[in-house]
Write a structure and sequence with these properties.
N-(1-d-carboxylethyl)-l-norvaline Dehydrogenase, domain 2; 74% helix; 6 helices; mainly alpha; globular
């Protein structure tokens, strides 16, 4: 639970960050800032956001289990509840023949 809370949880967080930056029109600025710290990070971030769609269906339940684990430990569980919602929004994209484009992922994340 603790391992997945970090690895899969941060993928959901990263997906949310990229979607919010895209929504507000600052994704290029964000990627430029990331590149100052790590020149390869913008490309790795995009690949991670796109690639996580292949297992989003499975991660929904895992995020819910992690949330319950944190709650049982007396810790806040809302982050992983939100991560489950991120994965619900991109669920189904894995049925495409190829890994979806970043724009396809962002469109699904920003649907309400």
């Amino acid at each position: 639970m603790c391992y997945a809370s970090f690895t899969k949880g941060t993928s959901a967080l990263l997906s949310s960050v990229v979607a919010a930056a895209n929504h507000y029109g600052v994704l290029d600025d964000l990627e430029a800032r990331w590149a100052q710290d790590d020149p390869d990070f913008p490309d790795r971030a995009e690949a991670r956001v796109r690639r996580v769609t292949t297992k989003a269906w499975r991660f929904i339940g895992e995020m819910e289990e992690i949330s319950a684990t944190f709650r049982a430990a007396g810790l806040p569980s809302g982050f992983h509840d939100a991560a489950a919602e991120i994965y619900r929004r991109i669920d189904g994209l894995e049925k495409q023949a190829d890994i979806p484009s970043l724009n396809e992922v962002l469109a699904r994340l920003l649907e309400t």
